[in-house]
Amino acid sequence: MTEGQQQIPQDPQQSGSDGTESHDPAFPERFLAFMRDGWRDTELPTSPRPEVPHYAKRRAALAAAFPGETLVIPTGPEKTRANDTAYPFRPGSDFAYLTGDYEPDSVLILRPNGSGHDAVLYLRPRSSRDNDEFFRSRHGELWVGRRPTLRERAAELGVETADLTELDRALADCAPGRTRVLRGLDPAVDTAVRPYGPAERDRELAATISELKLVKDEWEIAQLQEAVDATVRGFEDVARALPADRGVSERLLEGVFGLRARHDGNDVGYGSIVGAGEHATILHWVHNHGTTRPGELLLMDMGVEGHHLYTADVTRVLPVDGRFSDLQRQVYDIVYASQQAGIEAVRPGVALKDVHLTSMRVLAEGLSDLGLLPVSVDEAMDPASSVYRRWTLHGTSHMLGIDVHDCANARTEHYRDGTLGEGYVLTVEPGLYFQPEDELVPEELRGIGIRIEDDILVTADGPVNLSAALPRRSDEVETWLAEQRAAGPRLPG
Q: Is residue 10 pLDDT above 70, yes or no?
């Protein structure tokens, strides 16, 4: 990858201390008294989630990296969309990786106990029936639904829980010089625990979490495979809705895939890129306000984010009318050969940069065959030149996991300049892009953009393509597209 109900202000000055809003009515006392009586209490049936041991293992590994130090990991608050409405909340990735809790405002504190660390999860408990919060507050369950009690959440997540109202006191008790905070997620936490010493102290916490995330365990790989499988179904849905003989809007196709993502997962893992015609040459085209045209290509870079937030990241290019032209096929086959070479290079102990360079050489050779390189392939590949990159600006790979660009805070020597290890999952996604305004390419090439992207698991036996169910070769893409169209549109179910 290269609302209209309750209104939720983010400025505390716009809401009352009880969570009511400035525009809420002043209810008469008789109504308030009537609302307070006649409610049956309920308990949620709870048991530990199957993945609880994985979260506990991750917390233990993180704590072991910082003996004797307190670690503070927030998830962050809701984000304002406009005025007093909020975006759908998506938990902080590192927080979710360590806890499995997906609610806003929660904070995990790992505090040293002499032999290890005690984990306490501070979160917003169930709205109490002892006051009017349950029906008047923006956090009340008649507005947002039944939240688990602290006890229910502790049983579900396998970690000690505490009321969010106790967080300020807990943060005030964090010892200067022996506390690290995952910063930039929750302004209130950042303010409560002032940095002590160089900023590198806190950056080491973020880097360590990212480096722990580099290796995926069996459960994580299964989550990624589920997200990829749902993504494959989403691409099939789009292909079935794509007419061969007339144009449709990019946003229609984006919406078709989004329906699959919401039905089979949590949402899309990132803004879907649906680029028809020359829009395919714009690497992160997310406006999606164009229209497909028979005879042109359609580039789609899309991924489903699963229920546990692991995301797929897949790109395919389709000939709208069902067949690649000779020139389109020639460019497509260059990119396919580049991707295949990159995938075959993926093995434990191989430098990530070498996967990139392997793919790039094939692209440079293809550009030479097209007569576009002003120098030899060797000179174009020389770091002092790199002129081939005019037509392929991005890298070939990034890590994939609970973020589409996973492990982003890992140190350079462990990621960009590092080597691949068993359990790593990365994309391989070379592309060629000939801009409509590029006068250094023949006119017939201008406006063609092609990227092929798959999600690759590193194993001792070589690469495993998690997204292999979507054909990649040009002839197979044509056959697959015809089969999907013949099957007809479908709704998820």
A: no
